[in-house]
Specification:
Elements: H1 6-11, E1 37-41, E2 46-52, H2 65-73, E3 76-79, H3 83-86, H4 91-99, H5 107-110, H6 113-125, H7 138-152, H8 161-172, E4 176-178, H9 182-190, H10 194-210, H11 213-224, H12 227-241, H13 243-266, E5 273-278, H14 288-294, E6 298-301
């Protein structure tokens, strides 16, 4: 969802519990973001699908009237993970346990000499002792690099759209639910093979060296509600270059979510529901939007600021 790197773009959409705090900010935006929002309807109720950006800035709020209206209309809110699980305090520990090496291998052994040298330089530049990373799997190191770089650009996980609506649902007393469990998300990351993990670290470092331009481009595409731009920047390269990883991270999860979302439409006792998930999961032919449309539901883009789809 965030950088150019196609692996990283999707893995960061699975981000669970970043603890870093933004160290920089940019000028506040003056217009509300154009929402990536769709309404899926059957004969008696509706599901709103809202594409999230998991790290945002204060200037990304308030949201558009379309999004506020969808939240007000919904009697229940669903997320990738339930707020109860996110607040349980166990996800970070589960991730650390999954990322900790247990086979006696070292991070330096996993990386080629050039990547190791670049990682040393990055750690020194950011005042992070490289020894702190030695006991962790490469995928966790790559994720850490990305989070550090994004928070330096003023993007804060505490301000992500998911957290925003978890708090709003809590304050309004609306029931919430999750589409999957945290351990399932962790397994997506921990399931990367050695080659994919090395690539993840190398490209995380490459993005860090190039700076914030690509991250900002994707953030602005999200603010514009540019579904095509986000698809191209987030997923198209990965689908082409890393089809197995794309299948595991995106398609398989979407396929598992669609029946759960559809149940909110088919159950006669269900009320309207707002579903907030990473924007990637709604985009392209493999996205939840098209999968529900293929099942015969009426699907329309909700966007007063853009042309109807």
């Amino acid at each position: 969802m965030i950088p150019r790197n196609p692996i990283k773009s999707l893995l960061l959409a699975c981000l669970l519990a970043a603890t870093a705090t933004a160290t920089a900010d940019t000028a506040k935006s003056v217009e509300a973001p154009v929402p990536l929002l769709w309404k899926v309807s059957d004969h008696d109720n509706a599901v709103y699908l809202l594409g999230s950006f998991h790290l945002l800035r204060p200037g990304d709020y308030p949201l558009s009237d379309d999004v506020d209206a969808a939240f007000d209309d919904a009697e229940q809110v669903m997320f990738e993970l339930s707020p109860e699980e996110m607040d349980a305090g166990t996800l970070s520990m589960q991730m650390l346990q999954a990322a900790t090496r247990t086979d006696g291998s070292t991070l330096e052994q996993d990386l080629d000499p050039d990547t190791w040298t670049r990682l040393q330089a990055w750690a020194e530049k950011n005042g992070l002792p490289l020894a702190n990373f030695g006991s962790f799997e490469s995928w966790f190191v790559g994720l850490t690099i990305s989070i550090v770089e994004m928070t330096k650009q003023g993007l804060d996980p505490k301000l992500g759209l998911d957290n925003h609506f978890m708090e709003r649902a809590r304050l309004s007393g609306k029931p919430t639910a999750g589409l999957e469990r945290g351990q399932e998300q962790i397994a997506v990351l921990d399931g990367m093979d050695a080659t994919e993990q090395r690539q993840f670290v190398a490209e995380s470092l490459e993005q860090a060296e190039k700076g914030s331009l690509e991250t900002e481009r994707l953030h602005q595409a999200w603010r514009r509600g540019d579904a095509e731009g986000l698809w191209t920047g987030m997923a198209a390269d990965m689908k082409r270059e890393y089809p197995r990883l794309y299948q595991r991270i995106n398609v398989d999860r979407n396929d598992a979510w669609v029946p759960k979302i559809e149940q909110r439409l088919t159950e006669s006792t269900s009320d309207d529901t707002l579903v907030v998930v990473g924007a990637l999961h709604l985009l392209g032919e493999d996205g939840v939007v098209e999968k529900l449309r293929a099942r015969g539901y009426t699907v329309e883009r909700v966007c007063s600021a853009c042309k109807a789809e």
